[in-house]
Design goal:
The complex is a heterodimer of chains A (217) and B (228). Chain A is an all-alpha fold and 217 residues long. Chain A contains eight helices and two strands, in the order H-H-H-H-H-H-H-E-E-H. In chain A, strands 1-2 form a two-stranded antiparallel ribbon. Chain B has 228 residues and is of the alpha+beta class. Chain B has one domain. Chain B contains four helices and nine strands, in the order αββββββαβββαα. The chains are: A mainly alpha (217), B alpha+beta (228).
Amino acid sequence: MPRSVPRAQSLSTDEFIKGLWKENPVFVQVLGMCPALAVSNTARNALAMGLATLFVLLMSNAVISSLRRFIPKQVRIATYILVIATFVTIVEYMIQAISLELYRALGAFISLIVVNCLILGRAEAFASRNTVGRSVLDGLGMGVGFTLALLCLGAVREVLGNGSLFGVQLFHDGFQIWVVMILPAGGFFTLAGWLLLFAKLQERRAGRRSLADEVAR
Amino acid sequence: MNRPGPIEPTSAPSTWHMYRAMVGIGSLCGLLIVTVFQLTRPVIERNKAEALQRAIFDVLPDARSSTTFRFDGNSRFVILGEEQTSDPLVYAGYDESQRLVGLAVEARGMGYQDVIRVLYGYSFAEDAIIGIHVLESKETPGLGDKIERDPAFLENFQRLDVSLSDDLTRIVHPIEPVKHGNKERPWQVDGITGATISSIAIADMLSKSTAHWIPKIRQSLDDFRKAG
């Protein structure tokens, strides 16, 4: 007999978890590639960009969802961009207040969060049609998924391209760094590697599932 | 067969509803931005001041305090008070006994990717640049950004000659960039292999800046000393 799970709780958990793996914004949906490739040259930059995007995604989802009945369909995109741009400006001030060095490292890419298709996409496809609670969970899940993906890219690129992780040197002087990995081309190479890995894992999971179905029949 | 009925017109919201949404949300967003700006401004300004102070002490290692001067355009350097100014600034560094040890000056120029801003320390006792600190650079990571951390390149600026002519009006030997390994004179900057454009940009901006500022600074040394 199937275990009875409260419907609302089950849904909520799904809203959060889907962004981490099944619908990961970078590795599955391939969204927000501009910052993912440009700012992931070090793990620290990747983490900062991921957290900044997470904050904007979470706040914009919450605000747009709570105002969804108030915003006419005809002006929804303009309104969403207004809300997203506000939170990007806020996050820009906050990063400047936390660390000027980090602000300089992220450069123009903080402002470009406004046009990150992931954020506008979640606002249009999810937050404008769902309750505040579900939208917050969706934003949180997608944001954490985006941050983890950027961290995966940044860590690999920094380790291979600079021989360090979060600025801590990992190898002896004899290690020959792969400069290409922290150049733009390295972003594409690393992304390709991660996409291959994700595709392979998903293929294997699908294979196991179909095998289990056959055995069950 | 059912015939399709007339298309029902979709209920369009009134202009008032659209204005209400846009103006209402816009006003709220504006309020939120102003509030966060007001809250973070003191911290951001303090961060900027601290970063500048660190850079000054980095390029003038013997300095323990500094005073900011503005150039008023009439060959005079005046201590900068609380007022906002668009005049060029220089920073005088003083040791524990409030003796002038040197001046920090900002230079800027086009690098490979974007404008590079550096602060350099000038020692009038040695007639030389005694250090540089990159304030802003978007040079290519792993290549152009070596201007910030390559020890051999930074060694150029431990004592880079900017001696003045006897009448204190011009640099005798303007700073010049040379290819890596070809430095023979104390006013030459040894470039970086793999960061040629960025290293030449640093040499060029220092050459222009020193030609402009060092004669003026030397003619006003008393202004800086008095402030100590």
